[in-house]
Structure formats: C-alpha cells, structure tokens
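Researcher: Here's the sequence for the chain we discussed earlier.
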Amino acid sequence: NNNVNNVNGNQWSEFVPKIVCLKYRNLLAKFDKEGLLPNIRTVRGDRTRPCILPVVDEAHKMNGNIRMISASTMVDVICGKYQGELDHYIIIDCRFPFEYENGHIMGAKNIWTREKLLGNLFLKPCFPFQDTSRVAVIFHCEFSAHRGPQQYIFAREVDLSLNHSNDSLCFPEMYVLQGGYKEFYKEEARHRFCDPDRYLPMKAKDYEVDCNQSENQLRASRYGADELQWQSHTCTVALHRRISQSGTSGWREHIREQTAPPSVTRVSNNTVPFTPPTKIKFG
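Model: Thanks. This is the structure I predict for it:
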C-alpha cells in the first residue's frame, strides 16, 4: 500500500519533544510497518482501524493529527449512542479546579496537571475496566486550544514510551472536544449535561489569584514533564517493564491490581481525582 509506505515517523514526532524523538526513533518507526493504515485523523492512534467516533474535518492549530470530536458527538457519547462500539468513555477536563467546580460536563474528571494525568490514567488508573482498547478518552479545556490538547499530547507520549516494544497502545481511542467547554455550553439544550449548570471563564476577575496560582503550578508540571523526569519514576519504570514483557495482558493485569473492588468508588464523577499514594514530583 503506497499510502502506508509514504507515512513516516516524522508525523508522530510532532506529538513529543525532540529529545523523546531521538530516544524513541525506533518507537516512532514502528508505526510504518506494512498493514497499518495511514496516520490520518480518521484513523485511531494505533493505526489498526478507523476511529470509533466521527472526527471533525478540521485540523487542530496545535497539531494536525489531533483527533477532534464535536459537541454534538460528545452528547451522543454521554447518551449511549456508541454503547455497542465503545465499552466506556473518560472525559478529562483540563481546566483549573476553580473553573471545573463552577461548571463541568457530567462525569468529567478534573485532571489538569501532568502528575494527575500520569497517575490517574496510567500508574493508578481511576477506572474499573481492564480492556482500554475500546475506551474513548476525551480531553478538553475552556477552548480546547492549549491545555486540553497539550494533555492529549502528553498522554500519547507516555503511551508511546510504555509500548515502544509492542504493536499496541493503552489508549488508541483519544480525542479532543472541539471548542472546549465554552462551545459545549453555548447551546442551551446541552446545559442539562453540565454539573452545575454554569460556565466560568478562566480569566474571571474574581478568580485572578486562583488563576495565577494554577498557571504557576501547571507551568512547573509541564517543565518537569518536558525534562522527562516522569520516565525515571519507580512506578513508571515498573509499568514499562511489565508492558514490555507481557504487552496488553501486562497492562490489563496492572489495572486489575490497581483497581479497587467494585463496591468501592475510587473517584467520584463530581470530585477532583485522588493523588496517587506514591506522590509524583517533577523538578
């Protein structure tokens, strides 16, 4: 297939820092094996099949390969339209806590720093299901212009590094909500999917102090992630080793061990996700 042969790892290099691309050159090259679909927006991350959710026909300004879904598709997901194709979905709200607490999409989890994303999505999974190949992870922030897409990119970077010796990804179905929470809240009919039914802009005057503090914390979190300090964390090293040795089955076993019994709720849909017991620090 000429289309497959013409696709190269450089497209994936946009997702990760240059230092990562140098270290994981072979990792990026694996996506050019024969039989894989072209690396385009309508194909899911592992390039084995088309995306389950309909992707908007628009390239994200941050990176053209980011898969974006519309607000109407988000509603369809929440209402169960894709229940036969998706096993579950995770909405990750990347806005600051004060924004989240003043209105968010029902069921969304406030995972806004690199530490929280690494902990709640990979090291100490905050979900009870073990097969994540049919789980849609949907990121968004206020406009889905920076914070949400950057968390998406970091999640893909972690996923690629953990699976660099395998032909799979932990979360191949990842998306960004087009227009973010502001666009979702714009239509009154969608307000019933918001909890509480409010929308607070990041730059709200009454929250300037909270905004500045959160921006500083997020900046430090990003710096640590860009310096690859997350890769040396003992939990990350152990998980990497496990997935390298056992592939998908190792990932599922990891989730099974880290997930609480069904009678225990690890993370409430309406609260900030827990901090992993082993505190992860960047810098």
